[in-house]
Amino acid sequence: MRVFDASSMIYAWDNYPMLQFPGLWEWMASQIETELLMMPRVAYEEVAHKTPDCQIWLDENSIRKLEISNAILGIAMRIKHLIGVTNDNYHPKGVGENDIFIIATAYDHHAELISNESRQKTPDLPAKMKIPAVCALKDVDVPCMSFIEYIKRSGEIFR
Q: So what CATH class is 2-154?
């Protein structure tokens, strides 16, 4: 199972228009239908806010939205502690609260995370880490890939 971050869904929507890449979107719809592809509710809400037409497509294809459970809240608190975030004082160059919930959701569901947040060298402060760096922490260990990596790993050929 894979979960989409808002950044990767918006990237796909903006860079692979449905009219020009219908096979890609048909394949993604089949991934949604078989629940191989899902979204944390917080990521879905970000997409809905930024690209309402993408939200309509997600709804038409019945994307499963993963809710924040008590277990996910606990995982999120542990991740916040790992990167040194206290009292919800997130660093402006690092992950935000929704990002932590998205990572915690992927962790809880033993899922790979698809995120188009930029890769980075280890920052001087852990709180400056972006999603891929947080996912790569030894105590988090959530597989994380970009949208393009997701497509390449699928082995699908879109016509």
A: alpha beta
What's the sign of the alpha-carbon dihedral 52, 112, 83, 94? negative
Secondary-structure percent of the chain, ordered helix, strand, coil, rounded to 5: 50, 10, 40
pLDDT band at residue 102, thresholds of 50, 70 and 90? Answer: very high
Delimit the domains of the chain by residue range: 2-154
Phi, psi of 35 (to 5 degrees): 60, 35
Give the whole-angstrom CA distance, residue 106 versus residue 151.
19
The pLDDT, as a whole number, for residue 122 is 75
3-class state of residue 157 by DSSP: coil
pLDDT in tens, 48-62: 999 999 999 999 999
Q: Model pTM?
A: 0.93
